[in-house]
Structures are given as C-alpha cells and as structure tokens.
Amino acid sequence: MALRQRQGEALTGVTLILPALLWIGLLVAYPFVMALYYSMSNTVVGRGGGTFIGLANFRALLGDDTFRQTLQNSFVFTSVAVAVKTVLGVALALILYRRLRFRRLIRGLVLLPFVIPTALSTLGWLWMYDSLYSVITWTLNRVVLGPLGFGPLEVTWLGSPILAMSAVIVVNIWRGLPFFAITVLAGLTAIPTDLYEAAEVDGAGRWGRFWYVTYPLLKPILAVVILFSTIFTFADFNIVYVLTRGGPQESTHLFATLSHALAFESMQLGKGAAVSLFMFPVLVVVVALQFRFLHREETRYA
Amino acid sequence: MSKTQRAKAPHGSTAGISRRRFLQSAGAGVGATSLAWLAERTPPAVAQRRTLTALSLSLFVPSGDERFTEIMQEFGKQAGVDVRYDTVKVTDVPVKLAAEATAQAGHDLVDVWEAYGYLHRQNLANLDDVIEDVGRRYEVYPGHRATFQIERQWKVAPWYWLSFVGTYNAKHFKAANLPVPRTWDDLHRVGAELKKRGAPVGIAISNCTDAILSWRTVMWCYGAKETEADGKTIAINSPKTVEFLEYAKRLYADAMTSEVLSWDDAGNNRLILSGKGSWVYNPVSIYLAAKDKDMPIIQEIDHHEGLAGPAGRFAGTFHHGLGVWKFSKNVDLAKEFLRFFYREDNFASWVASAKGFCMSPFKRFEGHEVWKKDPKLTLLPKEGPYTRPQGWPGLPTQFIGAMDAKYLLPNMIAKAVGGTPTREAIGWMEREMQKIFKETL
What we know:
The structure holds 2 protein chains of 2 kinds. By secondary structure, chain A is an all-alpha fold. Chain A is 76% helix and 0% strand. Chain A has a single domain (65-301), classed as Orthogonal Bundle (MetI-like fold). Chain A is built from 13 helices and no strands. In chain A, helix 3 (65-97) packs antiparallel against helix 10 (206-234) and helix 10 runs antiparallel to helix 13. The longest helix of chain A is centred in the first third of the chain and has 38 residues, at 2-39. The model of chain B is unreliable at 1-15 (pLDDT under 50). Chain B is built from 19 helices and 16 strands. Chain B has 2 domains: 48-162 and 318-387, D-Maltodextrin-Binding Protein, domain 2 (3-Layer(aba) Sandwich), CATH 3.40.190.10; 165-316 and 406-440, D-Maltodextrin-Binding Protein, domain 2, CATH 3.40.190. Classes of the chains: A mainly alpha, B alpha/beta.
C-alpha cells in the first residue's frame, strides 16, 4: 500500500513537471539544437536544407572584419554598461534605502525604465538623439552653452562611431539601472541594523560602515545581479536595432543584431546562427566565474 | 470536514475527491478528446471556409492599404471566402518572408521587392498564366520584367514602383537666386551655395534603404557599377568608381551636414519638413505628408526630374510585386485574386487611392488622372524609362540582397567621407563583395 502510494506520488510529480519540461524543451532546447545544426551548415533561407560544413562558418566569421568589430563592440558595450550600472545602482540603492518622503512613490518611479517595453522607450531615445530635433542638444545649447556665450552646437549623436556607441550605452544604462538598484536595495534591507550600530560603537564612519559592513554583505547579491546584467547586456538587441541598426559603419553592431542581419536580411541562416552561438562560450565562462566567486564568498562566511 | 477527519484523510484529500483522482480524471478527459479529434483528422465544419491571406509592408499612404483591403473583401464576397490583409513595418517584411519560407507555412500572397523575388524563387509559384495575359493587355515595364521574370518564369506579379525625384524647397532656391539642378554636378554647385545660407542638401549616408538606392543612382550616373551584366563578375574597383566616390566626398563636404550619417529612412523627410533643408532625393512622401497635415510648407515644396551624370540619366527604384507561396493551400485562389485585382477598374482605383505615391508597373496606366490633377506630380510617370533594377546591369539576385543587408555601398561612402582614402574605401568594398559572392555563389 505504501509502495503504491509512493509510486502514485512519483507519477503525480512527473505529470506535474512534464508541462514545464515540455515548455523548456520546445522553447529552449529545441531552438538551441537547431541553432547548433544551422551554424554548422550552409543553409540559406529559401534554398532548402543546407549541407554540413563543420566549423567553416565560425572560421569565416573570425576572418570577417564586421564580426571582429562586433566582437569588440560587444565587449566594450557590456563592460562599460555593466560597470557603470554597478556603481550607479549601488549609489541609487543607498539613496533609496534612506528615509525619504514619498519613498514608495520614488521607488516605483525608479522602476519605470525597466518596466516600459524596450522598443517603445528606445523610440523615445531615438527622438532625443535626432539630428534636428534632439532635446539633449537643445538643452545643452539653451541652458549650458548659450549662457556661457558659446555658439549653438550641432551634434549628430548617432552619426559618429564613438558618439553612437556612447548613445546606445547610455540607453542601456538608463534601462538597466532600476534592476540593479531594486535588487541591491533588497540586499540592503536584509542587512541587520545591529551590525551598523556595532560598527558605529567601534568608531567606524560612513565610509567605514559601507566598506566593512555593507559591501561584504552585499557581495553575493552584487555577484548575482552583475551575472544577470552581463548576460542581458551581452545579448541586447532592441536598443541597437531601433537606434542605429548596427551603424554607423558597423560600430554599434552586437552579436544579436549582426546575427539578425545575417540570418533574416542577408538570408544566411547558417552564418547568423554561428554568430549567435559565439555568445554561448563567452557567457558560460562568465557564469562559471561568477559561481566560483559566489562559492568562495559562501565558504568564507560559513 | 472536521480537523480530525482531515488529519485522518488521505494526503491531499478534500471532501469526496483526492487531488490525485482529480488529475487522473482530467488527464483522461483531455487525452480522450485529443485522440477523438486526431482520429477524425478533419477540423470541425465551422473551420472549413477558406481564408485568403496577404502580407505587405504598411504603405506610406494608408489609403492605399485601405483600398487594397476593400478589393480583397470584394473578391472574398464573390468567391465565397474570407480574406485577411496584414501589413507590417517595411523592415519586418524580409524577416516574415524568411520565417514563412523556412516554416513552409504562412500567408498566401506576400509583398516581394527587388532581390527578395530571386532569393525566394524556389518557394514562389509560377504566375505565367496570370501575367502573360496582363502583359498583353497592359504592357509591363522592362524594370518589372527584369526584376520579377526569374529564370524565364513570372515568379512575382508586378504591383508598383516608387518614383524617386528631386524634392526641393523652392523658397531657399528663390532666396539664393539659384536654378533647379539638372545634373549631379549642378547639385554640388547649388548645394554648396545653399549650405552657406544654412539650407544644406541631404542624401543619407547611413544604414538605411534610402542611402542604398540614392547612392546607387548616383553611381550609375557616373558610369560605375557593382557587377557586370552577368551579375557575378565584381566591377566595383574601377576609375569610374573613383570618380563617383570623389564626387560623393565633394558633395558631402560642401553641401551637406554630418546629420546625414545618422539618418534613417525618414531623415530626409524631416530635413525638408523642418524647413531647414533645401534638397533631397526621395519619392513624393514628403509632399504628400505636408499635404495630408495641411502644413504651410506645402507651398514651398516642389519636385524636379531625376539628375543626370557623365554616363547619362538613371533612376533607382524599388519594384514591388505580389508573390504566391508554392506551399500555400490556396495557390489557385490567390491567382484568381490577382486576376480580379488586375481588372482595369480595380487596379485604377487602387492607383488612385495611393495618391500618386505608388507608380503603376504597366504602361497602360501612365496617363492616370492621379498624376494629372496635381501639377507637382505630373513628372512622376516620366521617370519610368530611366529606372533600373537594383543590381543593374546585372539582376537583383541574392548577391545584391546580401550586399544591401550589410549596407556595403553606404558604408563605403561613409568611410570615404570620414577620411579613408578613396582607393582604400573601394578596396574594402571589393573585398567584402568577394566574401559575399564566395558564400552565396
């Protein structure tokens, strides 16, 4: 009777997780396996099945100027954006942690950039960066340069490689900062206040309390947030696609946008899949490093 | 149920039925229904009425889409079928085509332009029986024939093309006492003067389709080309290309501002509609937008015919057509719709609804009222003989499609105007083309 009951429970368990497994299988595992297959073939959309060509697509990409530029762009974009989001995210969380008037409202408003659909908010930025109607240029001229006696500045925010890359990084930071701030804020609220009291008694000032109490206890949260942010930022698509389509002169192409251009505009499905799979080993390394760091921190504090 | 009774009841029980029993019964019910449906193999009777579907980009002139929908609905009533017309952003159409071709499922009729017809030729149905008859009645323009009669078969039914003309702000020209340009050299001269007066000219040098089409037109007018007529021999590295690129550098430096480096396809529209710009190369969307919104600048906007270069006068365009997927379950129905659409009254009414923006691919409709009513639009049909398909003197094949997906031509010009020596910029484009040809051949 007990055995039958256990078997019945096991069957119920399997039945309950089966939909989730099917979901993951169909929407994650199947596309991944297909991408792997396409990346090792010369499949062109509209021409029927391609033939197996091994690693030829990957070798061709490594010799391709556009791909090498994209590789550089992705690392610059991710490292700068994540670094700035980390610093600003912690700063914003510390501000939100204080007793402010309308704290709940402010915390809610801070989340808005993260909540608004990316393509929609990026369209707003497209207008702000417009070469004719940029509100940023207008404000700079009216509020800063004009009163100082300097002539009107005409800036093509999306027209030069450096400015365009800076522009997409700014939008990514604006969008991702709330994720950092709110997650770090959750970590801050979990820190026992008596640790701060003890530190104060020991003579620690504001900086001392942050360095010896807040930061060590925030490290595990920060590690997780940085991990997720790195993955999301590395795989970003919407911001670059809406703002620059990878230009000017491929200076803002990321893996996702280059993959899209190759697979769906150039119809080279094999090459497009190969580009998207290049992200995989990089992200695996990032995840492994982060987990190693987390494990070390857990062991230290255990 | 009391606390004691609940404590003694089997795990997960409520009064009368356990969770396990519920799951077992529900699972059996769903399984039985599914099996019965699969065994029957035909959908319920209510789903058997056919639906004819079409996919296209959202026309700049919405009334054109509305009229096309009406024509589809009229056809649907006569044929006893449901119809659906889906429109998406222009940049989404190639993606949708790729997805439908890969999945071998999707719409029945699809909007296809330039290289996409060649690219998807293996999945497009043969429309000879429809177009040969239409051609006899209306005479198809050579540009459409070259673009859509692929490997001696009509794979795409001609629909419309866009007439790119010089769009200018007459007020700036009058204030500077300058004539309207007739050649690209004229444009450089007047553009330099207009820029000094704060009214620059503009051609996009960025990742957008306007940039590809406009600069390809200039390139042809200077006798340069990307490939030879066979469509396979790369011909970009030539003295003519050097001459063309030197002209582009002069035009950018003397007559434009750096904003053209960040334009999307609406950038040139904004330049003229803002009142700041003096000249762009575009279809008449700027004029129609100003007319639609009753903008005061409408009085200042006018058009002139395309410009000539040392090698003659040519005009780029996008030839649009309607393809029918081979894998569609309604191939014959789609062909019937095309015959219905091509009836003189229906097609003429659709041309009228597009307010002159969409040019007829047939000589028969050259004299349509829509281009006679407004004096600023009368020149549009006259551009027809000068148009060439993308890839000319070759055909708009997958090579051209792959090149354009990487915006090679605008990027070559961007490099040149950004300081890269002319021959180095041309060499770069040649190497990129060689890579693409090697991969797509």
